[in-house]
Structures are given as C-alpha cells and as structure tokens.
C-alpha cells in the first residue's frame, strides 16, 4: 500500500479505552498517515513492513495498537521493541509509558548497554509487560536466562536499517529465533535495502507493506540553506551565523566523535552554551546532556549521527550540518530533528567546494534545491550588534527606574568635567568591548581554483601560496580557526595534552588570561596525547613567554616553546634548537631538526 487510507480520528480504530484516553489527554486529534495505515492492521494481528522517515509518528503507529492488545494480568514480557541506540530506546519507552498512563499496573523496562546490569536484573525479576532495548543488551539477558520470550506476543524492529548498518544482523536473527512462531512482527525502516528484504522474507508472515512517501513532506516543512565554506573557515562561519541567527535549541552534526568535542569546545570558548554528545560518553552523561538541552540550560549539542539517533527535543529549531553527510538518507534523518509536530525548523548545510557532488545528490534525493547563501559580512555583524544594543537600551529605559542614574550622570558632568556624550560613549564601549561594534572582515574565500581540495596543492612545498602558515596547516590535522587568522603567527608547543584532560577551552583561557592576549588572536589548536600545538602572533615578547613557562593547565606546566622554522631571538632557545657541530665521520650522524 503506497498511500494511507482516508484519515479518521483515533476513536474510529477500536483502540482500548485507556489508550484512547491517554492520547486524548495529550491533545492528539488526527493520526498521521503512518498511524492511520498501521493501527488498524496491527490491531488485527497482521505483520507490518513499514517504510517511513524519522518524525512521521511511527512510534505511536505501533505502540497504540500493541498496547491496546496487552494483557495486564501476566507479568511476562508481551512486547519486545528493538532499537539501534540507547537514546531511541529511552525515547520509545517514555512514549509508551505516556500512552499507557491509564493502564493500572502497567510496567515497561528499557534495557541497554551502559546502564548497570544489577538494576536491570532487579526490574526484570519484578516483571515487565514491555521491553524496549538495544540488540546487544537484549541478547545478554536472553543468554543469562533473565529475559524469557516464551510469552511474547509482538516483536517490533524500529529503524531496522540503522540496526543493520551498525552490524546487528546476527543479533536480530538470534532474537527472532528465541521468539514464539505465532508472534506478530512490525518492522519499520526509513529505507529498504536487500538485507531488510531478506529479514522480511525469512521472519515475517504475509506482511502488509505500508510506504509513506513523506521524504519531501518532511523536508519542505524545513527552511534549508547551504553555505560554501572552506574547511579552515567553518568555525568562523559557524560563529558568524550563530550571532545573527535567532535560534532556540540546535544540533550540530559532525562526522567523528573527536570532532564533537573539538567543535563544542570552540563554540563554548566563543560564549555559546554548547556540549558534545557522542558514543564515548557514559550513559549518565549522555542523559544529562539531553536533559539540559530540553530544559534550556544548554542551547547547542554537537553530535554524530549515531549519538543523535532517537534524540527528540521539541525546542530544536535549527540543525547545522557542520560536516556534509555522505548519503542523502543521513541528511534527511539529520534535518528531521527539527520541524517536528508542525513547527517550523531550519537546516543549515556547510559545503566545501570539492563536495558539490554530495550537495547535488542530496538535492536530487529530496527533489528540491537547497539555496546558497552568503555568509554574514563584518558589516552585517556590526549592524546586528548595534540593533541588539539599541533594543536592550530601549527595554531598560522602559522597564527600569533610572532616576538615580540620571542624577549620577548629571553629577558626573558637573564634577568631573565630562560631557553626557563622553559618558555615553565610554559606557557603550565598556558594555560592548567583548563584542565590539567594529568588526574586522576576515579574508574572503579563495577562488575556486585556489580553494580546490586537491591534496597536491595542500602538501606541495613549491606552491606559490605555500606560506609558512599554510605549510604548517598542511602538515597538521585541522585545528579550527579563530578571528584574527590574518595575523602572521608562529607555532608553539605546550607540554600538556589530551591524556591530561586539556581541551581548547583551557588552552585559550590560560594563554589569554596570563599573556594578556585577545582570544581572537589565538590561532589553530591541535591537541595530541602528550602535547599541544597552538598558533600565536609572531614576535611574542620574551618576558611573556618566560611567564607562560610557569603557567599550569590541568595541573601540568605549559613549558611553552616555539617550534616554527624561523624561531626568533625573543623566543626561548631549546637544546633541540641549538645548532649542532658538524661531524666528520665517514657516516656522519644526521643533524637533529630544529624543534
């Protein structure tokens, strides 16, 4: 079936009174197409093969009918819902609990890796009607004998394609083999690769196929734009966009776990409430991060695709693809985190010049163009800051009692020989010195030829554009960029690294505070296990560097030393930097390179 039947109200399906009352309490009136198509079939016991994108309401599509058929008198698990990630397991369990709130004695248990096994064992012993879990932890309990599926009525595979991508095919087949032959199966997937078809053919009995063509509907509700940005300019582009863009909550998608931490730390260093969300975090930290986002204590979460699975936060108004996804389906999943429940959302995509092919592939898949936008200019930022400042002034004058301050300004003009204009100008400067109205324009993006991602151009020491700074950047991993990147810089090595717990935030804070250096003039930061490389303006005074030698970060001394090729006289000379005497042996030893 390619389209949903004519949509009636929830009360027309024959759901149990308790379930119907719960969804009425939540204000649900009209089912979504996937709900209208699935609920009647699942109520009759049919197997379902559903294809629908994230955000179409598929959790309610299977939860409402299956909960309506549950027997509260039995303590054995009757419904098992498999999800690819712990986040999605928690989200589904929370939704099911809300739908069953009028079902007295109902118990549901989410089980997943990262949570204490003893807690899950105690809850399983008490009995649960519904189990929601990740395949690995479900199998752990099956093999321990603590989860018995002999009374199972229904098995749900939610986001089955993601479970297969994550390598869970053997686990899924094992779980199927532990379930009764007469159990009902509901399999949901955003895509239908061959592996899904094989599972369907082997384990589902005459399934009803329901395909909701919602991809274009999902993305048309979201305002989508893209910016052509060189890799090294992404962070500057990000901070400029965040300053002029009005947003509530935001998810920033990157490709790697390491990038989640790097980008989140750099955003935090620029004053944004941002944190990372990745698979290396323990479950308590992940749950706390999501909860802080929901409560408004956190505005930006930087995540990978896997970590964001199941992340459903109503206040997410923007999704930023900091790194373009490698396939269109991932793009649709990502931007589906905004524009939920009829709300407007915005999706921002960064595209490097050499990634145009990926952009075109996404546009073909969603059947619409993603408009290109120009990055905010220095003038745009200046005007935006002035507008915000004026708005704050107007609000203050309208809402605050300023009589005392009028008298104070009047007294200052008489006693201190200052004009009211002088006072206003000085106070304006003090109020905005961290975000000055006069913004320096960064270097414009290079021409198409110059910004080519060709590796030969980046690595070639013969390139006409191969300045010392560019050669250094070509040899090292990307370390982000900051305002003031047009200032010539030297590279310095700090004797503190990731094994000491250091992040870019600590590096910037220590150097900026101790050296009296504007954080905008601190360049790229590359953190290795036992050391850190940081770019600082050329000609750093010797007394400042001497002072930084004794500064501690994460309980480790910085022991800063210049490692640029042309270390000047103002920089501390290390043993490695001293010119060695020539050897006259037959096979002279190689000179140690200047550090």
TrEMBL record:
Q: Where is the composition biased (Basic residues)?
A: 578-595
Q: Name one GO molecular function term.
A: RNA helicase activity
Question: Which Enzyme Commission number(s) are listed?
Answer: 3.6.4.13
Q: Where is this motif: Q motif?
A: 8-36
Could you name the Gene Ontology cellular component terms for this entry? Answer: cytosol; ribosome
Give the matching Gene3D superfamilies: 3.30.70.330, P-loop containing nucleotide triphosphate hydrolases
| Cellular localisation | Cytoplasm
Pfam entry (one): Helicase_C
- Matching PANTHER family: ATP-DEPENDENT RNA HELICASE DEAD, DEAD-BOX ATP-DEPENDENT RNA HELICASE 47, MITOCHONDRIAL
The identity of this protein, by name, is: ATP-dependent RNA helicase DeaD
- Say which species the protein is native to: Sedimenticola selenatireducens
Gene, per the UniProt record: deaD
